[in-house]
């Protein structure tokens, strides 16, 4: 029945909830260190980039509405090996799990200066891992509650923070917008871009949405624009209340302490910042194993990896993989900046693959493309994805100096290993596919 379907309003709510998370709490300070008063402009440019990317992905959601995710699009429109390559990079990109755990610890340290950030981050990672192993049924409701608290916290940050801004002159001068040069400004754009992604997951509701061909693209764009405006305001408050050197490469706690009374400050730090980081960490553990699980079903990985716990019906081995990935930077002493930049660059690589899939849609599934409610002209199905790919490449290049030869080498070796494994494993996947038919 129509009433049982997810409406446009509901889809927008889902999109906003997916986008708003801990990214703005953790990455804004790092971006300030790179761009100074250019952070608001960085949010605007990042919002435009994400919106164009989502327009491309929306064509897939409109033409082939399915509860399968980006892995399915890459697999079906580019090829099986490409699908596995995508999910392997997606898994590696979850090194950013450490970002959430360390971010939680950094905010706690502002309340309790004597704590050890590494130990608290490790404990937080372990607690969330165990919670997901046990498969808490109330996780979704709890997650929604945390998002509501976070939105209230950000609202208070903006409303009470704007009157504290004494001048807007630094936002009009090139030397304060790009104090470290254009390359660092671009790097800042791609850092805050990471805090704006999430609307693409609306594609997951293709079979459940009301009029998906129309409403999914609209919801993706509207939710991205709404959150971009919210983050733009956060950027002004974060850079306009205190001197840049007091907020660069730090959390928003310093600014919050300046604009809030003590009770509201504690509400923001605990209910907003720390809970938001915890909810994002929990969300990644919830959705990240899904792509690998499908890859296991397709035959790319041993069946045992998708084995489920008899008591809780959770994929404990897949969860363990992500737990180990998240713990590596914590154990090795990685900083928020290092993890954010490395994870963002890996993310740019695997995020490019569904964009490439868009270019194949008119040829590989012409019927679906022609019948789609929302579709770009054929020229745009090539031009916009190519534009996105150039932008992604620019973002990757802007961080090459920071990552260094060692980081680039590690990513290259990982990609080569994945490509070799995919080539060797492909015959088994083909045989299995025939058997399934």
TrEMBL record:
Cellular localisation: Cell membrane
Chief localisation class: membrane
InterPro entries: AA/rel_permease1, APC_superfamily
Molecular function via GO: transmembrane transporter activity
Keyword Ion transport applies: no
Gene Ontology CC: one annotated term: plasma membrane
Keywords: Cell membrane, Membrane, Transmembrane, Transmembrane helix
Superkingdom of origin: Bacteria
Alphabetized Pfam families for the sequence: AA_permease_2
Membrane topology (UniProt): Multi-pass membrane protein
Transmembrane residue ranges: 12-33, 39-64, 84-105, 111-133, 145-165, 185-203, 215-244, 264-288, 317-336, 342-361, 382-400, 406-424
Protein's name according to its UniProt entry: Amino acid permease
Source species of the chain: Anaerococcus porci
